[in-house]
Write a structure and sequence with these properties.
The chain has 48 residues and is mainly alpha-helical. The protein contains two helices and no strands. Keywords: Membrane, Transmembrane, Transmembrane helix.
Length: 48
Amino acid sequence: MSTQAVLYLIAIILLAVAALPVPSRGFNLAILGAAFALLAYAWPVISA
């Protein structure tokens, strides 16, 4: 499994957990998931 796939998987898990009605303390899981998705999308450019 590539690094990009792992980052996308982390993003999907974070966004799925953010959709659940559980409180998160101090940080927003949706924003963190979006950041991981953006990092995964840009990974070929970053690693080149």
